Structures are given as structure tokens and as C-alpha cells.
Amino acid sequence: MTDIWSPTRVGTIDLKNRLVLAPMTRSRAQYDGTPGPLAAEYYAQRAGLGLLISEGTQPSDDGQGYTMTPGIYNDAHVEGWRKITSAVHAEGSHLFIQLMHVGRTSHPDNTPHHRQALAPSAIAPKDQIFTMTGMQPVPEPREMTAEDIRQTIADFRNAARHAVAAGADGVEIHGANGYLIQQFFAPNANHRADQYGGSIENRARFAIEIAQAIAAEIGPERTGIRLSPGATLGGLDEGADGPALYRYLIAELNRLKLAYVHIMHLGNEQLLSDIRRLWHQALIVNRPGRPLDEVGSDVEIGLADLESYGQHALANPDFAERLKSGAVMNTADRNTFFGGDARGYTDYPSGTAAA
């Protein structure tokens, strides 16, 4: 029986175990999008996990939604990320940089160019977003033109090239959590009448074209994608045909032979089983709130090849070691999740004695 501690391969990378750091926004980058001075230490601390997936990283000025998030589209960003990848590799792990374009989940005050956000359609979510002057309503975005779509795909491709130049082992396309790619999936956010709206095939087209472009640029073996079927973050509603869209999308992505699909699983067990059947490469499953005594269960029954963890790994830099030894776990401090300094970032203690 396979367990979480057995080595595995993702793309062409050999991993020492099947534990994955889930991507988590920390909002500690510099104002120009260069990763912050403590980022290399933060990721290297968690290198006991077989694969690390970075915080969401914008592929362009248009892609930024939140304050102090990193980018990966210019030389300064590359130099900043190279410090991180070198630190992670020195500790024996691997890093994929997650490419996150937030679409309508943005505010002009949070972007370098202060422009109106881009989205499939000019429909604002009924949400608020943090800015440096406090919480503000998310404003109405601008519907993307055909040229905007072409440019955004090119931006993803450029970011992937920069990520590899920075030493990353690959990139993860963020197609989840209510951001741009998932906005195309959801009929209540996508009212387009062109080839990117309406039918399942059309609503999935943007995601497929981004994956094709990145795979062509850096290789499918360096390309992963994260999806969250049924997620309603950002006010999205994928409708009754949402599961059918994901079955179609997974089958089409499988043709590209990407390194992995990363599923944020929200409870549709039949859909997850179907994804497992349709997807022939590595499958990472993230179950938000999974109890510690259930870690490894999806791998053991063959439903997943790897499992990803967020808050447990955030609060426990030595999460893998503690899990293996049965040591007491630190509790995550929600007050320090976003922004700030070392507190709640690189200062969680390691080495608690076994319970």
C-alpha cells in the first residue's frame, strides 16, 4: 500500500514524500512585487515537504488584486525569486511558483498602474477588498476584449518563462478560488457571447489556452494547474453544469500531459473520483480543514498521488517531521496571516517534543 512517505515523481521531478505545501497568500512582498527579505527563509523552513507551491504570484500589473503580493514578470522579480528557489533546493525540496491573475477581485488602488480590473464580463462581485486606506467595495471590472485575452495569455506565458529563469521547478496555473480563470467558468460572472462564453467548451477555452501556451513555453512537465470545483469564492456560481465543465476540462488538459492537477476538494466525491479516472498524471488533493488523523488517507486509497496542506504547514515549519513523529503541532495565528514582519511568518517554533 502506498503511503504519504513514499517517494514519487511529478513531471520529471523526484519527490522525497507526497506532502505538498498549498499556496497561501502572505502579502509580505515589496511594493514593486519583488519577494520580501524573509521569503527565502520562510520557504526553506518548510522544505521537509516534498513539493512547495508558492503564494499566488501575479503574471502582470493587471493580474494583481491584493496589496504586497509578489510578481514574476521582470528582472527584479527573477532575482528575488532566485534567492527563494536556491534556498529551497539547498534544503532538498522543490518549488513551483503559482501564477495568479485575480481578474475582477481587485481594486485600482492595489495595482501599480491603477487601472480598472479585467474580467470576462463587466460584473462586479458583491465583495469588499482590503486596500492601504482600508476596506473598499470591489468596483466593476472592464470586460476583456479579444486583444485583452490574447495579451493575458501572453502574460502567463512570459511569467512562466521568468519563473524558470528564477530557478523554479515549474509553475502552477491558478484556476481556482474565484479568480480570473474560474470567473470564465461561472455563468454568473461570464455573460460573453463570443467563443469564451456560453457553452461548457467555450467557458473552458481560456484555461485550456493558458495551459497550452505555458506548456509550449516551459514544457508540460513543468506545468500544473489548481482547480476548485464548486467553489463560490468571489461570488461565483458555476451552475448546474459545473461538474460537467470540469469533466470536460480535465479530459482536455489530460491531452497536454501536464505535470499535475491540484484539486481543492469541497465535497463532490463522485466528481473527484471522475477526475481521478480522467486524469493520467499526478493528482494533488487538498481537503480544507482535513483533521491530522486523516492525513495520507487519499493517498492510501489511491484517490490522490499527493496531498497538500496549508495552515498546518504555515504554523509548523517542520510539519512533515512532526507528523511522522507524532509531535504536538503549533496552532496558526490568523491575525498574522497577511502582511507584517517575521511574526507569524518565520518565527513559528520547530522541534516540539513528541506527545
From TrEMBL:
Co-factor(s): FMN
Which InterPro entries did the record assign? Answer: Aldolase_TIM, OxRdtase_FMN_N, Oye-like
Residue stretches making up the NADH:flavin oxidoreductase/NADH oxidase N-terminal domain: 4-327
Which GO-annotated molecular functions does the record name? FMN binding; oxidoreductase activity, acting on the CH-CH group of donors, NAD or NADP as acceptor
* Keyword line: Oxidoreductase
The answer to keyword Oxidoreductase applying to this record is: yes
Where does the record locate the signal sequence feature? Answer: none
- Mind telling me which GO cellular component terms the entry cites? cytosol
Pfam family of this protein, just one? Oxidored_FMN
User: Which family, according to UniProt?
Assistant: Belongs to the NADH:flavin oxidoreductase/NADH oxidase family.
Q: Which PANTHER family match?
A: NADH OXIDOREDUCTASE-RELATED, NADPH DEHYDROGENASE 2-RELATED
> What is the protein's given name?
1,2-oxophytodienoate reductase
What organism, scientifically named, is this protein from? Rhizobium altiplani
For this protein's source organism, the top of the classification is: Bacteria, Pseudomonadati, Pseudomonadota, Alphaproteobacteria, Hyphomicrobiales
